[in-house]
């Protein structure tokens, strides 16, 4: 096979997963600049990839196209038969996503993960989730490009970027100014809470840490990031516990993912719970420091690239083999305000 004209990358899942997958898209575009890169995503997160130079087409599946199953199969059939793919990379390699390969058996490279059932439809399989791997998620994703070395050397990159227009950034910056943000001073975006309770750092620990930041860094302004519903209620309660300080903005709202990206792009730093907003910040080259729950491996989900991104997890405090007798809550509580503050200030010194 001399040329690759069209590549399909199947990702789905959540914001963080899809952002880290961009490094694979960029690697393939660098390696095969004349090829079209098509990216399969859930519709709700697709706006993040509008105008991305390394993604030629975003193919979305909304709730009605994911269920019922017959609608899902019909959409896959249409996608695979309207586009004759030379490469299919099935990043998830689930029974559902394998239908892309089932309907594309003439595709020379059907690449995915090693699972018991994938050998029937994928002709190149990679072990990307082995516990023995010490690589982060971006490096694991890039393993899926290795079979294409048969054609030519692959130009790997660990960079994952999101792109906004200057107008989008300027419009949101104007809105932030109207809400009282002074851009002559640092602006911290604070991931003060999370959608999933088991990933949320102890609320009292968060309050203690934010109080100390406010006391010792007099110039810093904070914007609390949260989603409507439980997260908003939680964020407002923390705001009240802190005494509703003027330097914290609680009502700056991002009503879409593009606006959330514009908010991140106009901030100096991200601090708080690990989540989608932190991934967006790193993809927009905004430095960050995040707190990782016991269920989110920092070594896997904090990829190293050219952006200053740091974090703390229970494994940084106590070796995993010594945590086996602890409950989940006890493991999470190993991350104390003192340890967070020490590492946070060390990260901030690197920026100064």
Automatic annotation (TrEMBL):
Cellular component terms per the entry's GO annotation: cytosol
Record keywords, A-Z: Glycosyltransferase, Transferase
Gene3D superfamilies for this protein: Glycogen Phosphorylase B
UniProt-listed GO biological process terms: lipopolysaccharide core region biosynthetic process
GO molecular function, one term: ADP-heptose-lipopolysaccharide heptosyltransferase activity
Alphabetical list of SUPFAM superfamilies matching this protein: UDP-Glycosyltransferase/glycogen phosphorylase (SSF53756)
Keyword Glycosyltransferase included in the entry's annotation: yes
The UniProt record lists the keyword Glycosyltransferase: yes
InterPro entries associated with the record: Glyco_trans_9 (IPR002201), LPS_LOS_Heptosyltrfase (IPR051199)
Record-given protein name: ADP-heptose--LPS heptosyltransferase II
Upper taxonomic lineage: Bacteria, Pseudomonadati, Bacteroidota, Bacteroidia, Bacteroidales
